[in-house]
Fold this protein.
Amino acid sequence: MRVAGPALTVKGTPTIIHKDEYLEIAVEAYATLQPGQVVVYDTSQDPGTAHWGEMISTTTRAKGCGGAVIDGGVRDVEAIAELGFPVFARYKTPADIRGRWRYVEINIPIRIGEVQINPGDWAVGDANGVVIIPQALAVEVLLAAEEVMETEKKIWAELRAGEHPLNVFLKYGRF
């Protein structure tokens, strides 16, 4: 799975109280979702809750969401895979959020690990993981990545042709 798009940020926190009004923030988030956006969750390091599942994948996909990056858990993994909806999460669990976790706010700066993520920053991910690119640097990073890919295509061609790796490294400065 691959994902790339501007972030719609979501902040939440663990709780032991079950209140349906906590879900109002989620409804607001998905009502404001723009096609191509990627939902990015700061779960306050919640260790055991499914913050994302099949219903929310179906809902957001129908609105044109590009995918989800969850610093937490996901459930309904097989159903999400069948949808072809890209979701990146730390772990899988069947534990629903009700009475375990609540939404706090949307479209605010969040932090995942050491990474500050602002609404509109770009989330880009594939099988190797996810990176966040500050919105102000998105074009610069894209151009640099395209340049790297062009160089690597030349390197791969030379290696396939039998060129010695040291010569390739000396020629291109990378290997």
In short: Helices lie at 23-32, 54-62, 77-83, 138-160, 165-172. The chain has two domains: 3-133, 139-172. The two ends are 26 Å apart (CA to CA). The chain has a mean pLDDT of 94.
